[in-house]
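Hi P.,

Sorry for the delay on this. The queue was packed all week, but I finally got your sequence through. Input first:
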Amino acid sequence: MWTNRTPRRGFLAGIGTLAVGLAGPEVGLGQGQGQGVDAADKWVQALKGKHRQIFDFNAHGDGIGLIHMHNYIETLKSAYGASPGDINVVGTNYGGTTPLAWNDTIWAKYKVGAALNLTDPETKAPLARNWFFRPKKTDPVFFNGMLADASMENLVRRGAVFLQCNNALRLWVGRLAGMGLGTAESIDADIRANLNPGVVVVPAMVVAVGVAQRHGLTYMRT
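Then the structure:
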């Protein structure tokens, strides 16, 4: 069983580190050499704001990483007078946050709530929907709903980008296949077809963070 209410050593932590070098051909490097930015890193070119920051979190922490992204936007607006177009936020989905990039169909079909040891307070069964993307008022995330505006869906509406690590995705695919939930090929295709809006697959998070910093984004580990 994979749990993630607090960062733990073991498989989830390993996803964030052991995935180095596993990037598949779907998002391979080198396709855009000589054009200023690699084809796999086109996402960074769309970030034109004055205030740009990448938020690095590989444990869901009941939404704390997303709350930091929301707080960044709101503070720049209220205290610094920044307009929405001046602000770009980027979140990371790898390790224990890999499934945050997936929609409700995938959460239900592949028992993601059980894998993360998350229980639906209404059904008392393993969570079968992604409450980080679209929470209900009764969900025990985002400080029990007090900061539900920090949901991924709301952040994407405000221009946020979420990076899905291809290495971590493939490790999760292998794990789900090992649980007898389908072949690796079918699970991989299914997940990629059911990513949430605002999600971009990158070859490896260890590279994407460096890409962000090379292009002037500030960095926060949360």
